[in-house]
Amino acid sequence: MASVKVFGSPTSAEVARVLMCLFEKEVEFQLIRVDAYRGTKRMPQYLKLQPQGEALTFEDESLTLSDSRGILRHISHKYAKQGNPYLIGTGALERASIEQWLQTEAQSFDAPSAEMVYSLAFLPPTLPKQNDNGNGGAFNARDATVGSNADASSGKRGVAGSQPAASQTKVSAQKEEEMLKLFEQRKKDLEKLLDIYEQRLEEATFLAGDNFTIADLSHLPYADHLVSDPRSRRMFESRKNVSRWWHDVSGRDTWKYVKTLQRPPSTSTDASAKNGQLGQQQHLPSSTDGHGVKTQRLVQNERHF
């Protein structure tokens, strides 16, 4: 049995970061899904493990952590001699640069990108112009529930409640206007930051230097949502260096595999979970990590709450 355990849903940005780091470092672990797809009826069991209801709990022997960036640092340091050797840097200067850009992501990228993703869940497929008096597009009521695309499982952003039918149209129009304002403001904030990234990536392949590190990795969950949505994609594509960087970091096998884990569990998996059975071992095909080193990654056992 693996000593490392990850409790949470892969659809959470916090959990997705940790899973990718574990794959990069070739650390065997057990994923115990506290799944957003299963609703609140599963929560009491999880709250026994995590009384604060955090989206993520990480266990490594006797150590328990819940902050994803702190977990990235822990994994990269403790398992420095296996998997990708560059995640935390190889010298003091490189590690200082990694820490600088990791802090930039946490303080300046995370909040505006998360709120953009959240607002997009409430907005129509074609964004209306700000001065169209709210008639720029039809609001889809099914968007009122924020699913995995808005990372509702982060624990920081809730889901919209249902409204009485008589007031649904009015409330939806108000919500759409509110979300449009939020989207536009956070878009301005994020574009200013991406302009800084564009300059930085003119002189370096990745944010902290010539190697992919946890500073790049930490951006992936929310950036992936934004690039996947045509309403926000151009922020990345219109900046040559940012676009090149995104193509490189999002194309890694480890991230592609994390995204497969974000899909809803199959019926057969659900049945096994209800019967208390452990999931089958899941393997990634052997691949190279960009430095000619062949790797094979393993999720040892997968269980569900």
Automatic annotation (TrEMBL):
Q: Where is the GST N-terminal domain?
A: 2-83
List the InterPro entries hit by this protein, alphabetically. Answer: Glutathione-S-Trfase_C-like (IPR010987), Glutathione-S-Trfase_C_sf (IPR036282), Glutathione_S-Trfase_N (IPR004045), GST_C (IPR004046), Thioredoxin-like_sf (IPR036249)
Coiled-coil-forming residues are 173-207
Which ranges carry the GST C-terminal domain? 91-268
**Per the UniProt entry, what is one GO biological process?**
glutathione metabolic process
Q: Recall the GO molecular function terms of this protein's record.
A: glutathione binding; glutathione transferase activity
| Entry EC no(s) | 2.5.1.18
* Region feature Disordered, mapped onto this chain: 129-173, 262-305
Gene3D superfamilies to which the protein is assigned, alphabetical:
1.20.1050.10, Glutaredoxin (3.40.30.10)
Pfam families xrefs? GST_C, GST_N
Which SUPFAM superfamilies does this chain map to? GST C-terminal domain-like (SSF47616), Thioredoxin-like (SSF52833)
Stretches with biased composition (Polar residues): 263-289
Superkingdom, taxonomy of origin: Eukaryota
| Reaction it catalyzes | RX + glutathione = an S-substituted glutathione + a halide anion + H(+)
Give the similarity note. Answer: Belongs to the GST superfamily. Phi family.
Name assigned to this protein:
glutathione transferase
- Specify the species: Zea mays (Maize)
